[in-house]
Design brief:
This protein is of the alpha/beta class and 274 residues long. The strands form three sheets. Strands 1-4-5-6-7 form a five-stranded parallel beta sheet, with helices on both faces. A five-stranded mixed beta sheet has the order 10-9-8-11-12, with helices on both faces. The longest helix is centred in the last third of the chain and has 17 residues. The chain has two domains: 153 residues, 3-Layer(aba) Sandwich (Rossmann fold); 113 residues, Rossmann fold (3-Layer(aba) Sandwich), CATH 3.40.50. It contains six helices and twelve strands. Strand 4, helix 2 and strand 5 form a beta-alpha-beta unit.
Length: 274
């Protein structure tokens, strides 16, 4: 058995940690970060003891295109180092340490699609294991099978039920769920199925259909080639919803929205998990 819950966070997720602590009615553990002139970082916990507590350390591993990237800790690499230092500093006193990574760093680097590149998401799991992390908690991994890279337990949470409630609250009768690429088909089909069930349970007659956008990337840029919508010839008078696990610049979704609009879609919306 572990002691009471304790929560702390790196600078990438301080707002999220504060919100979680308010819901739980506890105070976050105080953390000090010292950035030295030589580029080194030191993490210090000046508060009380966390001995034998069930400790959750929250640090997301992504950076929005709208955020300032000038400060060292505002890079993904800096966020990772903060997380590792926090875990290492408390590993000998906490009863259990869970690394909470709402966006798992380098989640998209999960395969060798070129001859001489690293599978960086596997390396991140190895680093977390090296500092004696007990568990990892993430949201909607880019590839669920990447949990197999880890030798420690990995819990993956999903927000689909939240999105389904929102979709049902829209009150739309004619819906089309269009995956923005082939990798998102399962998520979109899940939303379509459970939205249809929700409409039926409420006494309505669901008119829900699915399809996907055929997309191709020829390089590592964020400028994909969008070809056509597969599975749907006519989207007239339908509200189209597109689900994806990650949005960077949004160019893919914009191109997909333009593509479905050309098929007669009445309006489009999207949800993403990060």
């Amino acid at each position: 058995m572990y002691g009471s819950i304790a929560i702390c966070s790196g600078r990438a997720s301080s707002k999220l940690a504060d919100d979680i602590c308010k819901i739980l009615g506890i105070e976050p553990e105080p953390v000090e970060f010292h950035d030295f002139s030589n580029g080194n970082l030191m993490v210090n916990f000046p508060g009380g003891t966390v001995r034998e507590k069930d400790l959750f350390i929250i640090q997301s591993g992504e950076r929005s295109v709208f955020q300032d990237k000038n400060d060292a800790y505002r890079t993904v690499s800096g966020d990772i180092l903060e997380l590792l230092q926090m875990i290492s500093a408390l590993k000998d006193s906490a009863g259990r340490i869970t690394a909470v990574t709402p966006y798992f760093p380098y989640a998209r680097s999960d395969k060798k699609d070129k001859p001489r590149i690293a599978i960086t998401s596997k390396m991140i799991f190895e680093l977390l294991e090296a500092v004696r992390t007990d568990r990892v908690l993430a949201m909607t991994l880019h590839s669920p099978q990447s949990q197999g890279f880890s030798n420690i337990p990995v819990d993956q949470l999903h927000a689909n039920t939240v999105f389904i409630r929102k979709i049902l609250a829209m009150g739309e009768k004619k819906l089309a769920f269009v995956a923005p690429d082939s990798g998102s088909i399962l998520d979109n089909d899940f939303l379509a199925l459970h939205t249809a069930k929700g409409i039926q349970d409420a006494g309505g007659v669901p008119d829900v259909t699915t399809g996907y956008v055929k997309k191709m990337r020829v390089d590592d840029s964020e400028n994909p080639l969008v070809r056509t919508v597969e599975g749907l010839d006519d989207l007239s008078d339908r509200t189209v919803l597109m689900a994806d696990d990650e949005v960077l610049s949004g160019k893919s979704l914009i191109l997909c929205a333009e593509t479905v609009a050309s098929r007669g879609a009445e309006s489009t919306g999207n949800r993403e998990c990060k």
